[in-house]
């Protein structure tokens, strides 16, 4: 969560709770709600690294709050983040190892493994469909996040299909 | 009509269909038993060429099986003639196809009303049904358009209205989003779910797992056979179950 927080602070100073709300609003219900404690911990770390600076602000009826702003180093880290492409998502290697090794162990059947894995993916897909249906239609970013997850899952399901086709063929 | 309230909407036993063309015979469906309960939404998925469209054609009487039998609402269809199947497809089975199959020189309104009129529904009621369905499907104002003037997504919605105008107990859908973009796919998915929520029995054939995940039950079809038949979780999405897929990295 470090860099998304830095990115939110690039617009201007904010306190921890505001950042939590901004993140929630941006990503909608699709994103597992960031816990506020986790945000404070991350902000503390960012401050220690010199990427942000906090300033205590007195509040009359409540404890002081800390307003953070991005430092020049923080802005540079953010630029570097945007400058680099990300790694590719990886094939589910754990499942692949099960599939590859099952015949030698005599403990599991490959087609049963595929079916089990497919059920899991389909249930997740169903959960994602429901999330998409429940999400505010105007929140395009949230819908893109869900759709991205669905397309990845679709690719995993297509690949399971390929495994099944290949393994069902008599050698 | 022997309409048995407890019988499944659809039941197939030992279905076999082989296509004999040039070259080696293609065993499209090789012994399929399948039951769809009333109100159920079942998706059949599998790679192209697995025989799933042939299966749907058999279930809708568009092709006849080499062996096996099909019951609709408990009623055996083995002795049905082509003409009888055509009547069933107007009254008891609605079908939507990948390429919509609308009548290109009839208006949207006429495309939807036609099956109602053919089924003997009085014109006034056919019009009312058409109006209600088009409204429901967000097509009000398109009544006078010709199918060619509509987008793919809109044409598929017209096809859905046509399939449902006679309130068939069973809806068969053959790759209904197969020629639509992502947005059109979502739209079809939303509509199928909505009709299903109201009790519509649906059998959907698709290679699209997103679409299939709208169903209560997913049948994986491989090489003419059912490889797996899984009920999907009816429970609302469990946050932690999918959060891993959506979680952004630390």
What is the CATH H-level superfamily of the domain at 39-58 and 82-217 and 227-231 in chain B? P-loop containing nucleotide triphosphate hydrolases
What is the CATH topology classification name of the domain at 39-58 and 82-217 and 227-231 in chain B? Rossmann fold
CATH architecture annotation name of the domain at 39-58 and 82-217 and 227-231 in chain B: 3-Layer(aba) Sandwich
**Share of residues in strands of chain B:** 15-25%
Please estimate the helix content of chain B. 25-40%
| Unreliable stretches covering 5 or more consecutive residues of chain B | 236-241
Oligomer: heterodimer
Strand order of the largest sheet of chain B: 6-7-8-3-9-10
Tally of separate helices of chain B: 8
Might you state the CATH topology name of the largest domain in chain A? Arc Repressor Mutant, subunit A
CATH class type of the domain at 39-58 and 82-217 and 227-231 in chain B: Alpha Beta
Q: Count interface residues per chain for the largest interface.
A: A-B, 37 and 34 residues
Mean pLDDT of chain A: 89
H/E topology pattern of chain B: EEEHEEHEHHHEHEHEEH
Structural class of chain A comes to: mainly alpha
Note the gap between the termini of chain A. Answer: 49 Å
Poorly predicted regions of chain A: none
GO molecular function (chain B): ATP binding; ATP hydrolysis activity; transmembrane transporter activity
GO cellular component, one term (chain B): membrane protein complex
InterPro entries (chain B): AAA+_ATPase, ABC_transporter-like_ATP-bd, ABC_transporter-like_CS, ABC_transpr_LolD-like, MacB-like_ATP-bd, P-loop_NTPase
Protein name (chain B): ABC transporter ATP-binding protein
């Amino acid at each position: 969560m470090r860099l998304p927080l830095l990115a939110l602070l690039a617009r201007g100073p904010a306190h921890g709770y505001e950042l939590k709300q901004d993140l929630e609003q941006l990503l909608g219900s699709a994103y597992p709600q960031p816990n506020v404690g986790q945000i404070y911990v991350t902000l503390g770390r960012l401050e220690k690294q010199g990427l942000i600076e906090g300033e205590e602000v007195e509040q009359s009826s409540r404890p002081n709050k800390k307003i953070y702003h991005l430092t020049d180093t923080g802005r540079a880290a953010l630029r570097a983040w945007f400058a680099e492409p990300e790694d590719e998502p990886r094939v589910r290697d754990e499942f692949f190892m099960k599939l590859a090794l099952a015949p030698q162990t005599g403990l599991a059947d490959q087609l049963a493994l595929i079916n089990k894995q497919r059920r899991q993916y389909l249930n997740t897909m169903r959960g994602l469909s429901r999330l998409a249906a429940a999400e505010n239609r105007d929140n395009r970013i949230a819908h893109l996040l869900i759709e991205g997850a669905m397309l990845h899952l679709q690719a995993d399901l297509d690949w399971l299909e390929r495994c099944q086709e290949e393994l069902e063929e008599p050698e | 009509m022997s309409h048995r309230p407890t019988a499944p909407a659809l039941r197939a036993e030992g279905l076999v269909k082989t296509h004999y063309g040039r070259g080696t015979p293609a065993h499209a469906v090789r012994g399929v038993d399948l039951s769809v309960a009333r109100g159920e939404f079942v998706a059949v998925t599998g790679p192209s060429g697995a025989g799933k469209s042939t299966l749907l054609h058999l279930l809708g009487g568009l092709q006849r099986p080499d062996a096996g039998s099909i019951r609709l609402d408990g009623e055996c269809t083995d002795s049905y003639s082509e003409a009888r199947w055509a009547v069933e497809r107007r009254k008891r089975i609605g079908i939507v196809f990948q390429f919509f199959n609308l009548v290109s020189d009839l208006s949207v309104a006429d495309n939807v009303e036609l099956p109602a009129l053919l089924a003997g529904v009085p014109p006034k009621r056919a019009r009312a049904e058409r109006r209600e369905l088009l409204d429901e499907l967000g097509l009000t104002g398109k009544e006078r358009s010709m199918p060619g003037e509509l987008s793919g997504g809109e044409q598929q919605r017209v096809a859905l209205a046509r399939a449902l105008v006679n309130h068939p107990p069973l809806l068969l859908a053959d790759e209904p989003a197969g020629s639509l973009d992502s947005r059109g796919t979502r739209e079809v998915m939303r509509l199928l779910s909505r009709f299903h929520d109201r009790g519509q029995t649906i059998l959907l054939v698709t290679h699209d797992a997103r679409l299939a995940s709208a169903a209560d039950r997913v049948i994986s079809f491989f090489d003419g056979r059912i490889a797996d038949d899984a009920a999907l979780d009816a429970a609302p999405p469990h946050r932690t179950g999918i959060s891993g897929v959506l979680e952004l990295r630390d």
